[in-house]
């Protein structure tokens, strides 16, 4: 390799557009060269005459028309008007000026955190679901039905990239048999095995009808570590769930290798407090796993990335891997029995599979989460240093899901929870299939040859597609037996519609047989009752109506649902360190659907007039919903108010200008979205008046925003104000901010509530 050119040499001879692309994306874009683009287009889309010898007899007129249209679309991108060139030059100069001003303000810098990108915010404010729709057609064209990762080298063909002929026979369940020396097949035949009890139970049609029509009955329990539990079921009578005080690994019916590897893998979370008889689980893991192991649905809304996040991840990875190993061991054991049976013998005793192979679906927000999960799987499967498991495509996986520590910008000051959530590779568009067979693991397995699928909501959405699209597939979700949704609160910041779209397409009858042996398929799958056997594990950092709705309306487990329902006693308002009067103004709404319009009318008629006076300058309006933000922004423009705005789609240059205008008082109002704060965590200086258009999704955001006022050097504390709008439908968010006792009082009273926080409350 030749000597690497310096930065100045790289910039010489580049046009302004090329320099701008180099700054934004870190590489030169060859398509700015029109001559190079023309040569590339002619090489990719050659025009062939009717008598050309190279024309294929298999090509049809439809394909030719499609190629010509793509060619002309690319040619159209070469036409650049003088106006667009001038706009780009202006944007470039503004960006350079903004970078200088930002360094002067607080040198906070910016870190890419997987938030949706947008163009100029005023013109191109669009929700991210539109972006997902645009990318779906592009990615699906490369994947077909295998559902492998999309971050691979695009130069590699789909057949070459996703077909692993070398490992097909090695990882096929139908052509392999249980190794005699392993003895793992005996694990599934023990009495009281939760796996067999759950999967072998045969429901009757009247029970299915009962679950579909009748409402659930619930009961309450108090556990030492989890706290208040609510158990609800249609088939079972209300009963009190009792927590196991001590757990012996041998009594959990774990698959044989896991009994020895789990204590070693989980050792990092254990302390000397644990009793010798209970040395494998932390108190939290013990209670969570005892519920998971009964195959009931579980909702735990107290996951914290700083404290218990990794504990929970290890617990559900143990449960998922235990389930897969038991299911595969049952299939391999039955393969041997079928091989040795006499011809003409009945085969109904060997129904041990679903309509498709994937059994576990794990939804996580970032690639870093998938990386940690796979590492846990490998650690659990390796009994000791001498018995290493064979992991296919491990190097490629580390390259695509790992991260470079040097990529992180230096001197970034962010809260600890931010650093914990956005650690490592934070790309939110991925999916990968994992096949596990005895002592081997195959990464990047095609979905229909995978046991476990790890994906982000966006990654799985682009495979499922939308109604009307030609290339879409969701048959691989037909026989999912365990669904794990981790860090569900982050999906509220990404796109919750992707989660709902997944829940609508899981456990449906497949459109194709995909080569399944129907004599081995369980009757529950053939009857389309898979959703009544599926276990759903839902973990979140908060309780939210949208998350609760998924757990209540999309979970049909016949074993019942267990939800942790602890109420906050104090609230995040106790963490406000500035002396600040808080005014909670209640608005009335007839229903949940009408509260959006009621909030807007209440704000423009009752709240905003009080802040129109010039004396009420430096007013920040915190808006959790992007759609409410757009509505307010349009109203402010219509009323010709002196304001600026920042949202998740705003460019960096525009953000710097808005912060500078607001700090200097040139703009009276600043519209500020919650998702921008979630992804950036900038400190907004100059706040004197604060309006929460709606209570924040994350309760600690309330104290963070209020504490930004101490960053203001000038101004008198007595002039600071904080106004919060709430309704009776905001009970959960209100309790997280002010505590359960104050919430009860505020919901009973229809008057405005004034609270004064001194920093010691």
Which key features would you list for this structure?
Rossmann fold; disordered N terminus; alpha/beta; seven-stranded mixed beta sheet; 761 residues; phosphoprotein; 29 helices; U3 small nucleolar RNA-associated protein 25 homolog
Question: What report would you give on this structure?
Answer:
The structure is a single chain. This protein has 761 residues and is an alpha/beta fold. Among the domains are: 209-273 and 280-338 and 351-405 and 416-564, P-loop containing nucleotide triphosphate hydrolases (Rossmann fold); 572-758, Rossmann fold. The chain is built from 29 helices and 18 strands. An eleven-stranded mixed sheet has the order 1-2-11-3-10-9-4-8-6-7-5, sandwiched between helices. A hairpin with a 3-residue loop joins strand 1 (217-223) and strand 2. Helix 11 packs across helix 14 (367-381), helix 13 (309-340) packs across helix 14 and helix 17 (457-464) crosses helix 19 (496-505). The chain is globular.
Number of strands: 18
Structural class: alpha/beta
- Per CATH, the class of the domain at 209-273 and 280-338 and 351-405 and 416-564 reads Alpha Beta
Question: What percentage of residues falls in helices of 4 or more residues?
Answer: 40-55%
Strand order of the largest sheet: 1-2-11-3-10-9-4-8-6-7-5
The CATH homologous superfamily name of the domain at 209-273 and 280-338 and 351-405 and 416-564 equals P-loop containing nucleotide triphosphate hydrolases
Family: Belongs to the UTP25 family.
Domain UTP25 C-terminal: 572-756
Subcellular location: Nucleus, Nucleolus
Region (Disordered): 1-21, 48-196, 333-352
